[in-house]
Design brief:
Strand content: 15-25%
Largest sheet: 8 strands, mixed
Helix content: 25-40%
Order of helices and strands: HEEEEEEHEHHEHEHHHEHEHH
Structural class: alpha/beta
Number of strands: 11
Distance between the termini: 36 Å
């Protein structure tokens, strides 16, 4: 399974620089994109961690292959005590953030948050590893994440693997998903770019027959939206977790070639009539100091005008991605509580 994780490469070598030429874009500590189009993924800041199914853990986790051809994968999380209980739990299909350019379910900060979320909400979580830009620009992330929904649908229908992946009754999906998942209570979730993905995947799922899977809601945490013109809040707000430069680079590297920030992927409010979009009930989690705050509030108001069922919660005195970057913040408990209440309402 390790081969399906996004792995950082080592430091730049003279030969690599000579071959690739000038650095076109750089996210320090994470990524360099060279003029010839080559991409160097590095990791000075966040490490990858393996899954763990030790009996001593409060939440156990395992990795599974979603699609061997595209290298889409997922990390499954199950509250450990559920292995010895009857009854089935709701399922959250979760999409990580990172501006469509960075991130992985294997990142230590995501692994820790998914363990916390699974424990606090008492849910099975399927954290999806999708292909990243700029090697794979949008809508590839949407396609990959919808393929994960289809994969879960196959689990619910009793078809565990594709033709290319022979069935093995000892695989994690056989041992964990079928005995423990209530597929009639499935939720889509994600933070930052993953919240953006959750919106677009929810729209696509509403147009598709995913039975016997039933998607009951979407949980959007600080969704990463934008527009061609910056809002006044964006101009005056400085959020160290999401600097303006990073926002610009993320959209430059992830949007389809030639598209601007009013493309539907970036700006669903401006580019579509949300009243004509079918969505499940939405929980929108907004951070008070987040540079995305006003975009998120505009999205909330647009959903309300469109007659959608939506609840929003603003978390005081925290910025973008606080649930990852401030693991001791009391706001995380508030976040997991409102999420649990939304799931079990």
């Amino acid at each position: 399974m390790d081969s399906f994780s996004y792995k950082p490469v080592g430091k730049t070598t003279p030969r690599l620089v000579a071959e690739a030429g000038k650095v076109e874009e750089e996210l320090e500590g994470f990524l360099r994109v060279y003029r010839d189009g080559s991409v160097e993924r590095i990791s000075y800041v966040v490490s990858n961690v393996p899954p763990s199914d030790k009996p001593s853990e409060t939440v156990v986790s395992r990795d599974v292959v979603i699609d061997a051809g595209t290298r889409v994968w997922a990390r499954l999380y199950l509250p450990a005590d559920q292995q010895h209980r009857r009854g089935k739990l709701p399922v959250v299909i979760y999409f990580h953030g990172g501006g469509f350019v960075l991130g992985s379910p294997a990142w230590s900060i995501y692994h820790a948050f998914m363990c916390r979320l699974a424990s606090d909400t008492n849910c099975v979580i399927i954290s999806v590893g999708y292909r990243l830009a700029p090697e794979h620009r949008l809508p590839v992330a949407y396609d990959d994440c919808f393929s994960a929904v289809e994969w879960v649908r196959r689990q619910a229908a009793g078809v565990s693997r594709s033709v290319q992946q022979p069935q093995n009754p000892k695989e994690p999906e056989e041992l964990w998903l079928k005995p423990h998942c209530n597929f009639s209570r499935c939720f889509l979730g994600g933070d930052s770019a993953g919240g953006n993905i959750a919106h677009h995947v929810a729209v696509r799922a509403a147009k598709t027959d995913v039975r016997p899977l039933q998607i009951r809601g979407a949980i959007l945490i600080q969704p990463f939206f934008g527009g061609e013109k910056r809002s006044a809040w964006e101009c005056e707000t400085s959020d160290p977790a999401l600097p303006h430069k990073w926002i610009d680079v993320f959209w430059k590297l992830s949007l389809p070639v030639g598209a601007n920030r009013d493309h539907p992927a970036c700006n669903p409010i401006n580019s579509s009539k949300l009243q004509d979009v079918v969505l499940p009930p939405v929980l929108l989690c907004i951070s008070e100091r987040d540079v995305m705050r006003e975009r998120n509030l505009e999205y909330y108001e647009a959903l309300k005008r469109g007659g959608k069922k939506v609840r929003h919660v603003i978390f005081k005195d925290v910025g973008h991605a606080f649930q990852l970057l401030q693991p001791q913040s009391p706001r995380i408990r508030e976040l997991t509580k409102v999420t649990r209440d939304f799931i079990y309402k």
